[in-house]
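Team,

Forwarding the record for the chain on the shared tracking sheet. I've put the sequence and predicted structure together so nobody has to dig through attachments.
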Amino acid sequence: MRVAADRAIFTVVRHDGRWAVEHDGEYFGHSVDKEVAKAAANKRVRQLQDSGRPCQVRVFGEQGFYEPAN
């Protein structure tokens, strides 16, 4: 069986009325715009990935697909 590497998880969430990135219980990248918070997460992830650490960015409330209402 293949063992999954320990990934650094960054989650874009609502925090104190704004969007922010949560990682290991700390918040950074606060913004009223979710896209700005996502960019902050991706910037930090790129730094870690360049040093060889596997990472994942999750966005709270987004499922990765869209299903229109009938």
